[in-house]
Every structure is written in structure tokens, then in C-alpha cells.
């Protein structure tokens, strides 16, 4: 009789959809005891009785009972597998009745155990049946700390990491495709792969063992010719020995993403070179000047300074569309001799470029931070958080010979308290600083145009002026659109900025503070507008939102001195009364809008316009020292009335009568002062008190051209200030 024993797969998997609950699962294979069944839910082994129960068994299939709800979004996987212990459960007697049922059960059980072992074997790494290889590992002492590898014929062995040799790391991978013709065994690759370890070969999608072909340079030869029309794919590349230096031009780079193209690693890395690629140390001690210059020379797009302090001088600014980038780095120039930190020379115009650092200091024996020598800056941004010139007598920015600064943007954004010579973010210097003009741009040839100096704080300037921009010739130079903004200036007793021959230039949002702490007497005007050589005007100059708190101006010194025409002032003055904020208009064309606690000198209403908006009304400024404003003009009485169009009028009688009464004066603005005199000594004008809008100390007869009556308008009436009977 033939006995049929089930050979079912001792493993089954169920999928439970997201949010769905399933409580019963079929066990399709034979098992003998409840403990023969192992259950995994999402790779977690469950515990019989506590998590699930089974029914059936005893050599038959069965049912698993447990409540499983599919995980939200993904669902769950339930795996049921059989794992029968390898033991014998039946002992057959030597004599007596023979139990056929027990024998069958025992045999079935051993078949099931064999199936379980085969299932485990299928889960393991094996070699094909047709291959014969030695897969025995060396002794534990020999394989400890080693890597498991395969030799040239596929046998297992161990080796240290350093002894692996050439591996495909960063190789320049090339894919070659061929079609078999049934007879050709040799195929020439695009590149020489050097070793079979650097190849992967597939024929009709099936990986080819390396024993099935040989490699000689770029020629790959199969042991047997691939079949007719077989698709042959060979992936190969030049290997890079572990720990060796590879030519980056031979290695491809791809950014990834839609539209990305292959480039060499060399081209990618050259976009932005590190100064450390050329030996810079950045330890604050080693002179990195040569390494930095070499990096700039080699770079195409820019140079990166990693975090550190780099001792350097004479850093060349000689490439256009270039970035010198070190936002977390510092440059320190403490080298002896006349060494500038950054230089532009030899006719170079440093265009459309950026210099970005956390801190730059020049504390050497001599030299400026930026020195423009027969060269220029054009369309550049210089952004340095802390800019320090520690050597007394030297400057932040200066033009040496024939320099040009056009469209440069020098920005410093971060605040802090600094106490040495000059720093950016705060450009500051010690109280003992005597260096005049920390920014010194004066020439009859150079240009300084469209430049913004955006500085958080400048403290303290001591006896040195912060900046001067002076065109020293009527032609050959262009000084325009220079702006100093967003600054707090401390203790600037020798002035702040001087513009000479500069058009459309000025200061914006600048506060002078602590002026009475270390330098109570201010010896030079803080902001000075001057005409340049040959009469070139500083036209379009401006000072907006400028304030001073403290300090005393010396004689002939002003907060704002307008020694040139066409100046615009807005929101100027002291924060508190008594500071004596002074502006010298110097009879120039000046427009002032909004002021507080300000004294004006040189006011002439033929040129200057001063408007106070603080009270919500337009109030002309009246200088108490100069009451006569404008040319005097004649007005003739008509029915007792004249109309004031200025502040100084000659009054004549109606029809040249010998005498006429003046009752009312029309026109005028609140606060306006008016002086009237007789137009002719032969005709008397009688100013009448309280008849019209004149409020006088009684009637007054102007019976001679030298007689005067001074009035002030209060918005409704003209009030007598003074009268003078000067008849001779």
C-alpha cells in the first residue's frame, strides 16, 4: 500500500488592511502540538495563550485565533510558521503488538521536521548546486577582527581591511552594452577596468559569475559565447586603491534630481576652494599669507575660509565675480612692516565681488586694512562683522594711487562693545586715537560713487575724524552717492565726516552719543558739506534723522555745517533741550524739515526754507539774531489796508496823500515778523491801534523814512514788538 504524506510549505503570510480587524487565520500545514506554531505580527514574535490560541493539529491543519487590526496607513502582516522540535516522541516495543498508527505519526512528524529545515535553508545564503566551493570559515583566532571576502574563484576567506586592495570606490563608472551573435566571445569595453573586481556583467539580466570570463585591459572574454541576440551589459570603472589619492577629474559627480547632469568632481570642487587646500592653518600664529594667495590664484569662483584665525597680509583682491568667504573666520594682520591686509593694485578693478568675514584686525607695525593702489572696487560688497584698525595712524580704507571705488557696499550689521582702534559692526578706536580720517578718499583722479557705509556703532573716535571724501579737482574725479547710515557714534570730538565736492551724498539715521563723557568739547563740525576744488559743489547733500546727545560745540563749530549749496536736512536736533544742536546754513540753499532744540546760523529766507512740523502746522523759523529777511518792497494803503508779502515793507499813502491811516495788514503766517517804514518823508502813515488787526502801544506816526515799526503775527493780529522814531 502507498502512503501519501502532505509536503506543504510550513509557512504562510496574511495581510490585514489598515484599520481592518481579523480574528481567525487558517493554518494550511500539518502540525502536532500547539507549541509547533510560531506567529509573527509585523516582525514581532507573539506568545501562545497570551496572544493567540490554535485549534486542530495532531497531524492535521488547524486554525489560529487572535485579534489583529491593520496598522493605520500601512496595514499589518501576520506570518505563521511551523517549528517542530527535533526529537522522538514514540518508543516502539521489541515484542508484542506493532502500532501502525504510531509509526505513521512518527514518520509524518519527521517529514514535517525535514520540511521545516528546508524552509530554514531557503532563508540562508547558499551557493548553487552545480558549484563546488569551500565555504568553511577559518578558526576563530584567525578570523577575529577580519572581513569575510571571496577569492578570485569564489572561495570564502578572511582579510584585514587594509589588505583588501583595489575596490570600486568613487570609480568613474561606465556602462557598455553589446548584443551576442552566438559565436563572439571577446568584447572591447570603453575603459580599461584593470581588474574583474571592477566589473559587473549581466547576460539577459542574469548576473555572470567572474569565473565565466577573463579581463585583459579593456577586452572582456567569455568562456562561452553568449547566445544569439543576448543582451550583454557590462558595468566597469577605474578603481581607486583604498587610501590613495585619485585625480578628481576622472571621477564623475551628479547632483541628482530632474535635469541633473554629470560633471567631474574636480569641476565641482573648484567652484569654491578652501584656503586649507593650499596649506593655510588658521591657528592665529602661523603666517598663512602665501597659502591664501595661492588659493585665490587657483580658484575660479571663490575661496572659503573655514572657522579659525588666519594671520595674513597683502591678500590680493584681483578677480572679478569672486567671493572671499569666511563668515565664521577672522583675519589678523600682526606682521611687521608696511603690510596692508587687503590690496587692490596693478590696475586691477575688483568688480562685482564680495569679501565676507566675521572679524578683520590690523595690529601690525604699519599698514591699512583696505588699500587701493592703482586699482579699484566696482559693484562690490564688503561685509565684516568686526573691523579693527589697531595701529594708531593707519586707516581702514584709503586710496594710494589712482584708485577707484564704484558701487561698493561696505556693510557691518552686528553690534557689540569693542575697545581697540577700529572695528566693524562697531568700528571703534581708543580715546587716544589721533589718526584723522579712518576712511580717507581724497584725490583729483579717483572716483567714489554709489557707496553705502552701513555701520552699527562707531566708538570712540577720539581726536580722529571717521571719514572724509574730498574731490581735490574740478574735473577728472567723480564723488557721488556716498551714504553713511544706521550708526551710533561715540565721542567724536574731532568731527565725523567731511564731504567736499560730493554730489547726492550724506548721512542717514546717525546718533552722536556720550559726547560729554570723554570729550566734552567738540573741536570740529560733526558733519561738513564743502565745495570742492574749482568751485565744484556738494550739491544734493543731505542729513536725515541726525541727533546729538551731550557735549559742547567749540566756537565756530557746528553739528551740521553747510558750506555748500543745495543741502537737505530732515529730523535733526537734540534728544533733550540744552544740548545746543547748531546748524550753519551759511546763506546757502538749504531745506530743513522737522527739527528739535536747534539753533540756525546764516539763515537767509531768500535761499533757505525751514519748516517745523512738530506741532502739526507749518511754522517758519525766525532767527532771533536776524529779524530782517528778504528785500524790502513798497505797499500802498487802500482804504486803510495793505497786504504783507514779505517781512520788510515800505508803506505809502493812498493817492500820495499828505497823511493816511493804516488800520489792517493782511497776509502773514503765525510767528512771522514784519518791519514797516514810511515810503516817503513828505507823506505820513499813521498806524492805528485796535482799529483793525493792529495791536499797538497807542497810535504811531511814521513821518520819516527812518522811522520803523516792528510787528509779529500771532495768527489773528499784528502785535507791536518795538517802534523807533528816527526823524532827523
Distinctive features:
64 strands; mainly beta; 4 helices; 728 residues; 42% strand; elongated; 6% helix; Jelly Rolls; 20-stranded mixed β-sheet; eleven-stranded parallel β-sheet
Topology summary:
Elements: E1 11-16, E2 21-31, E3 37-41, E4 44-45, E5 53-56, E6 60-69, E7 76-82, H1 100-122, H2 140-143, E8 147-150, E9 156-159, E10 166-167, E11 174-179, E12 186-188, E13 199-203, E14 206-207, E15 213-216, E16 219-222, E17 231-236, E18 240-241, E19 252-254, E20 262-264, H3 265-269, E21 273-274, E22 283-287, H4 289-298, E23 302-304, E24 308-311, E25 315-316, E26 323-333, E27 342-344, E28 349-351, E29 354-362, E30 370-373, E31 376-378, E32 381-389, E33 397-401, E34 404-406, E35 409-411, E36 439-443, E37 447-454, E38 457-458, E39 467-471, E40 478-490, E41 497-500, E42 506-513, E43 521-522, E44 527-530, E45 541-548, E46 552-553, E47 560-563, E48 567-574, E49 581-584, E50 590-596, E51 598-601, E52 609-612, E53 619-620, E54 633-636, E55 641-643, E56 648-652, E57 659-662, E58 664-666, E59 673-678, E60 684-687, E61 694-695, E62 700-702, E63 708-713, E64 718-724
Parallel strand pairs: 21-23, 22-24, 23-26, 24-26, 25-27, 26-29, 27-30, 28-31, 29-32, 30-33, 31-34, 32-35, 33-36, 34-37, 35-37, 36-39, 37-40, 38-40, 39-41, 40-42, 41-44, 42-45, 43-46, 44-47, 45-48, 47-49, 48-50, 49-51, 50-52, 54-56, 55-58, 56-59, 57-60, 61-64
Antiparallel strand pairs: 1-7, 2-6, 3-4, 3-7, 5-6, 8-9, 10-18, 11-17, 12-16, 13-14, 13-17, 15-16, 19-20, 52-53, 59-63, 60-62, 63-64
Amino acid at each position: 500500500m502507498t502512503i501519501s504524506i502532505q509536503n506543504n510549505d510550513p509557512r504562510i503570510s496574511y495581510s490585514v488592511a489598515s484599520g481592518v480587524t481579523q480574528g481567525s487565520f487558517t493554518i494550511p500545514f500539518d502540525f502536532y502540538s500547539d507549541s509547533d506554531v510560531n506567529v509573527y505580527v509585523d516582525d514581532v514574535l507573539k506568545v501562545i495563550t497570551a496572544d493567540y490560541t490554535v485549534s486542530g493539529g495532531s497531524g492535521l491543519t488547524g486554525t489560529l485565533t487572535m485579534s489583529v487590526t491593520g496598522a493605520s496607513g500601512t496595514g499589518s502582516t501576520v506570518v505563521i510558521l511551523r517549528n517542530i522540535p527535533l526529537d522522538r516522541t514514540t518508543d516502539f516495543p521489541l515484542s508484542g503488538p506493532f502500532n501502525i498508527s504510531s509509526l505513521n505519526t512518527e514518520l509524518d512528524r519527521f517529514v514535517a521536521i525535514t520540511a521545516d529545515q528546508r524552509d530554514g535553508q531557503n532563508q540562508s545564503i547558499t551557493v548553487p548546486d552545480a558549484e563546488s566551493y569551500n565555504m568553511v570559515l577559518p578558526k576563530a583566532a584567525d578570523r577575529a577582527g577580519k572581513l569575510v571576502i571571496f577569492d578570485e574563484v569564489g572561495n570564502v576567506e578572511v582579510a584585514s581591511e587594509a589588505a583588501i586592495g583595489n575596490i570600486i570606490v568613487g570609480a568613474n563608472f561606465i556602462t557598455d552594452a553589446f548584443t551576442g551573435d552566438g559565436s563572439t566571445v571577446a568584447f572591447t569595453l570603453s575603459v580599461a577596468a584593470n581588474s574583474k573586481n571592477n566589473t559587473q556583467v549581466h547576460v539577459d539580466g542574469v548576473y555572470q559569475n567572474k569565473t565565466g570570463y577573463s579581463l585583459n585591459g579593456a577586452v572582456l572574454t567569455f568562456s562561452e559565447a553568449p547566445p544569439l541576440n543576448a543582451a550583454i551589459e557590462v558595468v566597469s570603472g577605474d578603481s581607486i586603491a583604498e587610501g590613495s589619492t585619485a585625480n578628481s577629474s576622472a571621477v564623475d559627480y551628479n547632483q541628482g534630481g530632474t535635469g541633473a547632469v554629470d560633471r567631474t568632481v574636480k569641476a565641482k570642487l573648484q567652484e569654491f576652494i578652501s584656503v586649507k587646500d593650499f596649506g593655510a592653518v588658521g591657528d592665529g600664529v602661523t603666517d598663512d599669507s602665501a597659502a591664501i594667495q595661492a588659493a585665490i590664484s587657483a580658484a575660479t569662483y571663490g575661496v572659503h575660509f573655514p572657522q579659525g584665525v588666519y594671520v595674513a597680509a597683502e591678500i590680493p583682491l584681483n578677480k572679478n565675480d569672486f567671493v572671499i568667504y569666511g563668515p565664521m573666520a577672522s583675519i589678523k594682520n600682526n606682521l611687521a612692516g608696511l603690510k596692508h591686509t587687503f590690496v587692490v593694485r596693478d590696475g586691477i578693478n575688483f568688480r562685482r565681488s564680495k569679501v565676507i568675514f566675521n572679524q578683520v584686525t590690523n595690529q601690525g607695525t604699519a599698514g591699512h586694512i583696505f588699500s587701493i593702489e592703482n586699482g579699484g572696487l566696482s559693484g562690490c560688497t564688503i561685509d565684516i562683522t568686526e573691523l579693527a584698525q589697531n595701529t594708531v595712524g593707519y586707516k581702514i580704507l584709503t586710496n594710494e594711487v589712482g584708485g577707484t571705488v564704484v558701487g561698493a557696499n561696505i556693510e557691518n550689521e552686528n553690534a557689540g562693545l569693542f575697545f581697540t582702534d577700529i572695528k566693524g559692526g562697531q568700528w571703534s578706536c581708543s580715546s587716544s586715537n589721533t589718526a584723522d580720517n579712518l576712511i580717507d578718499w581724497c584725490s583729483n583722479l579717483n572716483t567714489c560713487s554709489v557707496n553705502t557705509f552701513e555701520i552699527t556703532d562707531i566708538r570712540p573716535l577720539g581726536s580722529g575724524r571717521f571719514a572724509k571724501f574730498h574731490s581735490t579737482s574740478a574735473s577728472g574725479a567723480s564723488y557721488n552717492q556716498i551714504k553713511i547710515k544706521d550708526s551710533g557714534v561715540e565721542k567724536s570730538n574731532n568731527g565725523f565726516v567731511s564731504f567736499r565736492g560730493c554730489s547726492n551724498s550724506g548721512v542717514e539715521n546717525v546718533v552722536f552719543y556720550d559726547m560729554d563723557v570723554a570729550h566734552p568739547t567738540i573741536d570740529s563740525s560733526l558733519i561738513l558739506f564743502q565745495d570742492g576744488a574749482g568751485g565744484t559743489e556738494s550739491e544734493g547733500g543731505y542729513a536725515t534723522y541726525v541727533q546729538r546727545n551731550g557735549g559742547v560745540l567749540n566756537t565756530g563749530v557746528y553739528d551740521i555745517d553747510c558750506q555748500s549749496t543745495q543741502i537737505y536736512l530732515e529730523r535733526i536736533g537734540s534728544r533733550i533741550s540744552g544740548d545746543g544742536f547748531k546748524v550753519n546754513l551759511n546763506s546757502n540753499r538749504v531745506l530743513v524739515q522737522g527739527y528739535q532744540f536747534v539753533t540756525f546760523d546764516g539763515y537767509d529766507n531768500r535761499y533757505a526754507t525751514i519748516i517745523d512740523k512738530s506741532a502739526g502746522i507749518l511754522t517758519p523759523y525766525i532767527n532771533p539774531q536776524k529779524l530782517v529777511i528778504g528785500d524790502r518792497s513798497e505797499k500802498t494803503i487802500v482804504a486803510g489796508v495793505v497786504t504783507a508779502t514779505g517781512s520788510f515793507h515800505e508803506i505809502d499813502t493812498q493817492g500820495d496823500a499828505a497823511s493816511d491811516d493804516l488800520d489792517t495788514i493782511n497776509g502773514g503766517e503765525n510767528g512771522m515778523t514784519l518791519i514797516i517804514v514810511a515810503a516817503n518823508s513828505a507823506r505820513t502813515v499813521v498806524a492805528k491801534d485796535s482799529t483793525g488787526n493792529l495791536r499797538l502801544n497807542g497810535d504811531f506816526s511814521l513821518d520819516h523814512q527812518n522811522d520803523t515799526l516792528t510787528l509779529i503775527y500771532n495768527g489773528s493780529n499784528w502785535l507791536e514788538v518795538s517802534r523807533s522814531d528816527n526823524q532827523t
